[in-house]
Amino acid sequence: MTVLATYKQLKEKGWNIADEHLREGLKNVKKLTGLFGRWDIVNTNPMLVLDVAHNAQGIKQLIRQIALTPHKKLHIILGMVNDKDHDEVLRLLPKDVIYYFTKAEIPRALPEEELANKASKHNLKGKSFMNVNAALYSASLKASKDDLIIVCGSIFLIGEISLKNIKSIWEKDHSSVSAFEFIDVLDFFD
Q: What's the sign of the alpha-carbon dihedral 166, 152, 117, 148?
């Protein structure tokens, strides 16, 4: 049931809910609920988007949104769980992309090397990373400010991204990391 259908039923049952409260709630749903993961832009220059797309329907929508988003190169950080139809999703993904294959730290996760092997059968090429934060760090080093980085494939993967470190990744000059910054970089992989 959608939010609006629920709202309508509650109003019919006599609940006193102002239209303005519904509008405010919908405008601030992420802040109020902590729910993230549908085309969440968490960085610009390069644009970093988190999306929990993990099945054919979600991936198709994600690809439509990517097509509407100006960018030079596309980087996709991808991790999936074992019990999904991997081939159905992988065949939909674009080929001319830099891929970073990874996994969430859960028992159901598809190992990153296995995902990379399955992806190669669909002509998707990239490298494997032990966790999503390592993949994200690598993408941050390779991406230019006009590129687009997408993290997708699993809600668990999105949940493991260290949001507190995302801003600091792009503030650093990766070519000259001091000893203190290196400690911060190591913290990023925890």
A: negative
